[in-house]
Structure formats: C-alpha cells, structure tokens
Amino acid sequence: MKRILKKYMSLKYRIPSIIILSLLILGSSIIGISYKRYEEINVEKHVKMAQGITMLMAENFDAQKIDYYMENNYSLDEYKDLTEHYKLIMDSYLDVKHIYIYKFYKDKEDGPLNGRVIVDMIETGEDSTLYGSIATVGNTYLADEETAAVYDRMISGQECVFEKNRIGEREVTFLAYIKPVMDSEGNYMCSMGVDFSLNELYGKGIQFIIELLVVITVVILAVIIGVNILLSVILFRPLEKMTSCIQSFKFDTDKDRFDNLNGFESLNIHLNNEIDELYNALLLSLKDSAYYVSSFNRAKNEIEEISETAYKDALTSVGSKTAYNGAIAKLQEDVDEKKLFCFGFVMIDVNNLKYVNDTYGHELGDEYIKGCCSIICNAFKKSPVFRIGGDEFVVILKDADYDTRMELVDDMENAFTAAYNNMEVEPYYRYSASYGHAIFDPLLDKSVEEVLKRADQRMYEYKKEFKRVNGSYR
Count of CB atoms within 10 A of residue 8's CB? Predict the structure, then answer.
C-alpha cells in the first residue's frame, strides 16, 4: 500500500493530475459562464425580437376599434385583414409560439385579473397556426398569476418581460413579452403579447453547451497529451534516469564511488533548463565527493598507520608509551570529574633482561620480552596492557578485571613461577618478572600518580625480595 501511495504521490502523477484538475475546473467554469451568458444573450435577443413584432402589430391596429370589432362579432373584413397580417408576422418568426392582443382588467380593485381576447394566435405544432376564432376571440378568461403580478406595471404603460408556466400534456415554460397600448391621454387600452418557448430555447442552449463541451474536451485532451509529452521529455524522463542511476550507487570502495561518477556522467543530460542545472550540480557534487572521499581515505589510512605506530608497541603489539600517557590523562580527567572510583594498576618489571641480552643476544632478548608479555596478557585478557619501557609493563584494572584482580594477579604469578621452574628449557624461555599492584582510594588519593607510585613501590619491593631469594639471575 505504501509503495502504491508513494508511486501516486510522485511528481510524475501529481503534476499531470493538478493540470488535469485545473483544466477541468477551467473548462467547467467556461461552460458554466458560457451557458449563463448564452441564456442572457438569447433572452435579450428574443426580447428585441418581441419588441419588433409588437411594433409591426401596432402598425395596423387601432385600439379605439376594439368595441367596434366586438359588436360585429369580429367578422368585419377589416378585422380579417388584421389577422392575416398577424399570420404573416407569426410565420416570419419561427421561434414565436403565441401572439395575442388582450385587454386586461379587474371588476374590482382587489378582484382577480381578467383578460378579454381580441387577437389570439397559437402555434399548434402541426406546421399550421390556429388563428383567432369564435371559440376564443371575444371570450374573457382568468389571467395567470405571472401576468397578474405585472398588471400594475402594465396599466402604467411599462413593457413587461417575465416567465410563465402552462400545464397541458406537459409543462411548458414561456418567455412572455407584453407591451401595453395606451390612448393619447395615457390611459391603458389593451396589451400586445408575444410568447416564446423557453423549453426550446434551453434545448438550443443545451445543444450549444454539448458542442462547446466537445470542443473543450478535445482541447483539454490535446493539452493534456501535449503537456504530458513535454513534461516527460523535459522533466520526468531525466528525473527518472537520475533517480534510477542514484539508486544503483555503491559506496563500499573508491572504485565504487568513481563508477557512480562515471555512470551519472554518462547520462549526458542537456536540456538548458532547471533540470539541466540540477544534473550539473549533482554531477559536480559527485565529483567533489569522489575525490574528497578518496583523498580522505588515503589520509585516514596514513593517519591510522601513524596512529598504529604511535599507539602500539612495535615488539609486543600491546599499548605503547604514547597510548599509556593518553590513558593516564583520561583516568585523571575522570577522577577530577568524579566519574570513576574503581580502578587500579599492576606494575610489572621483567627480571634479568640484561643478562639474556648480554648472554644470548638482543634477538633472543626480544623473544624473552614477548614471552613475558604473553603471560601478562593471558592473565589480564580484558584489561589494557602497556609497555612503557624496555622491560616495564603496566596493566590498568577496570570493570570485571578490577573485581577479580587478586585472582588474576595470582594467575600471572603462577604462570611466571611455572616458567621459571621449568629447568628443561633454555634460560631465555624461563620467563620471570616482578610486580606490584595498587587500587585507587578516593579517601587517600588525589591523583592517579599516587596510585601508580604505590604500585611501583610494591613492585620494587617484590623485585628486591626476588633477588634476595634467587640471586641476581633468577
């Protein structure tokens, strides 16, 4: 799951997703604004059309003759000519669903709104137009609520634009335009009206939006494909190459680091953009790192060789005098800071080294020293051992060896005694040494040096007694 999440959180998927989402939001906004503006323009267009139609209707209509037409049952040739003229008008405007002349009135001020039909032409939907007849002309009907709502504006001479619903076999919404006809004194006479079907207008709007949607979709797809190709060339593919190369890096040896550098350099990315700058910066960093680490390793090896020489005794491989001085300084620091109280020393001096050197030569003398050192190290396996002089050794007792120091000292003494008593070997294999040990007493000792002096004094006393019993040579 984490792997899948990491994959889809990568720039390769996030950037195209952001672009697609942005384009979808932009496209949706364009479609929404376009549809809204299309509706506004369409309404404005049909209102102007209605204004022109009512002007044509008014050219041959005399409102003063309304009562005259009614008295003659709307059968006069003059009235018939008028309706023929309106028929031509309606046939000329395909979007018109209804043109009419009504006289709206109320029997009383708070009563319902009535409408007496003077001219009434309705599109039937069967490629013909139903014109005013005895069945409708002259009748009075109860006006709908939408028309009643604009009555006050109408009788004051204002043109009215509104929507109204008519429920038949199906509900139809109309855009209605009504222009009141006033006499010379400004009195309301009747109203000329034109209705358009908003269902059809909205249908055209939906068709427009579908066409616009198809165009926008094609454009968005083209942009997405183009952007993806462009991003792949200038961004994703170079980044994938660099990532894949970096993931294959090894850092175990100098050869690995130079192989990393050569592999990254072989990508040969040249795009003249930020990716190019990133690649060159990483390449430069790899070069600096490879040469720096190589130089560092050489210096480290040299330092380690120097350190090994300085801190390790060349003959016995135990700690050197330099290492011993550093250890003593660290002990003193811990004592001063009251971090350490349980430690001690074993001072060891090889017996009769001069006799072995003088009698058998320095090579066997060195072997004699190494044999003595081996006995010391075998006894104190967990403690640091230092050779601080030609025939002198110091053991620093801490931790487990400190707790069992007496047993370890006895082990060392027994080993030297066994070697000394072995009369079957040459003198230079009969190892012997004098020793003395002491531990730190926080109530008495103020420095590490005081402990060392006690151990050294006891070692001197041991050597003195050894010579008294065994002579100058064992």
Answer: 10
